[in-house]
Design brief:
With 219 residues, the chain is of the alpha+beta class. It is built from 3 helices and 12 strands, in the order αααββββββββββββ. It has a 12-stranded antiparallel β-sheet with strand order 5-4-3-2-1-12-11-10-9-8-7-6. It is globular and about 45 Å long.
């Protein structure tokens, strides 16, 4: 899996280097800053986040120290976040769909055949139930079916880097019969755009839980 992480990072850096030496050096420096800001048990500070010119996301694995990943690619609703620590997190509309480099990764999150993964903001209009499939290389288990329900929980204000952000909290409760695994994820989304500012997500039946918050949004 470490080799996969290195390969992903290599492809990302190759894409940056094609834009020119200056872009490559800036991105490499951002990766180094992301690692430097990962040490310690406190949250990422405003100064640490401001020092990175790229879009960035803080994440905390299993209540550990908060770390920074920077946005490498953003296309078709998918964002690839990475760091020089060989961590890769792929998100789609705020939902984590793949990780590389963690002790227990999720290798893929896809909709059941004939369905689509609903946007988190779909719950603004009412409860949404759907089925998705997940892969876990370390178990191993493939095509694990999870029945999930998105529900609106109400308005909440979140504090990120000292800024109060108005959001709607959305809970996503999932149940997988095959692995006897059930959990509830939470997302805090912008009430107008649906952009997910913060989340609490279960990514592996062996106990991997990730909390995320957007430190510098794309664009």
């Amino acid at each position: 899996m470490r080799r996969s992480a290195v390969l992903a990072l290599t492809l990302v850096l190759a894409g940056c280097s094609s834009s020119g030496p200056s872009d490559f050096l800036q991105f490499y420096q951002a990766l180094r800053q992301g690692v430097a800001a990962s040490f310690g048990s406190a949250r990422i500070t405003k100064a640490q986040a401001s020092a990175i010119a790229y879009a960035s996301m803080g994440y905390r694995l299993n209540s550990g120290a908060e770390q920074i990943v920077v946005l490498a690619t953003d296309a078709n609703g998918e964002q690839l976040w990475t760091s020089a620590a060989h961590i890769v997190i792929l998100t789609h509309g705020g939902r984590i769909t793949r990780t590389v480099g963690l002790e227990h990764d999720v290798s893929g999150v896809t909709p059941k055949a004939g369905q689509q993964l609903p946007d988190i903001a779909a719950a603004f209009k009412g409860t949404v139930t759907y089925t998705r499939m997940e892969d876990f290389l370390d178990i191993p288990a493939y095509g694990v079916a999870l029945v999930c329900t998105l529900s609106r929980r109400g308005a909440q204000t979140v504090l990120i880097l000292g800024h109060a952000i108005a959001t709607i909290r959305i809970d996503e409760t999932c149940r997988g019969v095959d692995l006897k695994w059930s959990f509830t994820d939470s997302y805090w989304a912008d009430p107008d755009t649906g952009f997910v500012w913060r989340s609490h997500q279960h990514i592996n039946p062996k106990g991997s839980v990730i909390d995320t918050e957007i430190l510098r949004p794309p664009g």
